[in-house]
Every structure is written in structure tokens, then in C-alpha cells.
Amino acid sequence: MKITDIKGSFELRNGVFMPYLGLGTYQADNDQEVIDSVKDALEIGYRHIDTASFYKNEEGVGQGIKDSPVAREDIFLVTKVWNSDQGYESTLKSFEDSINRLQVDYLDLLLIHWPVKEKYKDTWRALEYLYENKKVRAIGVSNFLQHHLEDLMSDCQVKPMVNQMEFHPYLVQQDLMDFCTKNTIQYEAWSPFMQGKVFDLDVFAKLSEKYGKSVAQIILRWNLQKGVVTIPKSVHKNRIASNADIFDFELTDEDMAYLDGLDKGERTGPDPDNFDF
Asked: What confidence tens digit (pLDDT) does each residue in 95-134 have?
């Protein structure tokens, strides 16, 4: 695993390369705000953009991509199937709606947003169909715990290639990460900054001073060194650029272990086993 620069990537099981640093767009407004943030990220060098139908900003994300001089084939574009759209036929319709809003004819990665009981297997069959018909380059899940993954993989045709989870120093879930690694499922972080709460904690101050880097940069570097794809969200160009300034230093093994040891099993988002679907 080599961490090189902003355009670097991890290889998925099927040989597709997924850029390990992306722009998250959750809660970015579907207007000039998200259009500009996507354009700014691509201008800075990002090549991975993450959205979801639930975010209600796919139109803006698509417009930002269209307005950018970066070629579509050089961008890794991700969206997700929302809970109310799950099921076989409804997932296929959701996919069509998403690519229409995004103004593209294929996706690089399509994820099931949450493991909706008694629906996610039918949803997965639809993702397999889209993958087999080359409408998507890779398929995966989000917020799936080990028992969800085991259940899904017990009778699927194509194993998930990615699992996007809440991941930060207070919620490492190393056992789940190890399970994903064992099954060649790329781990990906959402909410790497605990929805902003990490900036109120003093446990990172010494590391920030030691490396001459911001708390955000320390955490994102930790993500990458653990082999985790990360998608920090910002709509401010200077922060988008700052989040990418993480390729000129490396955390020591001792500091990596320190950050791992902060794990409290503490969530800032919903629990996948107790989510109001």
C-alpha cells in the first residue's frame, strides 16, 4: 500500500482503482454551494466525489463535474441507494434517476446506503445486475456491520467491493475492518471528523504540534495509513485544499497506535442495528 499524492488510489478486488481521498458532499446545498465545491475540489486535484440520492444535491454535483475541465473518465463518482428506494425494481429506477440528475451515463461506485432488513438482498441483486451490465464499475455497501455482510455474502453472486462506515478515532471498529480486509472489501470512512466534534478535543494537540499539521490533517493521514479511503466534507476552497495537504509527512507506528487506542465505540451517527428505516 503506497500513499503518494492527492490522485493516489487503492485497488478494489475487481481491479478498479478508487482514489483514497475524496470530497464528501453531505449537507452541501444543491445550488452554487455544491457546484463550486465540486469544481474547486477537482481544480485542486481531487478525483473522487461522493454523494447520495438522500443528500438531495446530485444535480449540483453533476453540474460541478460538467463545469469542470476534468474529463468524466478521470473522476471517480459515487452515489447511494436510499432506504425508501430499496428493493429490486425500485433500486433500478433509483439508479436511473440518480444518473439523470448527475448528467452521467455510468457510475464508478454505487452503494446501498443502509442495511434495510428484508430489502437489502433484493437491492443487492439490482446492483449486481447494474454491475454485470457495465452501468457501474464497482458496487458496495454503507453502514453494514459484520453480520449484515455475512448475510449478504451467503448467497450473493458478487461480493461487496467497498464498505463505507462511520470511522474516526472514537469509533475504529477494528474487528469489522479486519473482517473487511480478510474478504477484500475496501473500508471507507464517513464522518472522519466526528461531525466536527474532533476539533473540540484536546487529545490531538500534541500530535498537531509535533507534525506541524492541523488536527484535520493528522486524522486524514491516520485514515490513509490504516488503508481507509476517506471523504472529508467541506464547501470552503481553503479547507478542501488543506484537507489534501497530507502527503508530505507520515505518522509513526507509535502515533498510529495512540490514535487507534482512543477508540470508545462512540458513534456520532445512527447505529446500523438500531436505525429508524
From this structure: 999 999 999 999 999 999 999 999 999 999 999 999 999 9
pLDDT at 1: 77
Is 269 contained in some domain? Answer: no
User: What CATH code is carried by the domain that includes residue 81?
Assistant: 3.20.20.100
Residue 268 belongs to a domain: no
Average pLDDT score over the chain: 97
Specify which residues 111 forms β-bridges with.
80, 140
AA identity, residue 276: D
Q: Could you list the active site residues?
A: 55
Residue 29 lies in a domain: yes
CA 254 to chain centre: 26
Query: Which residues constitute the domain of residue 76?
Result: 9-260
Is residue 186's pLDDT more than 70?
Answer: yes
Domain count, the chain: 1
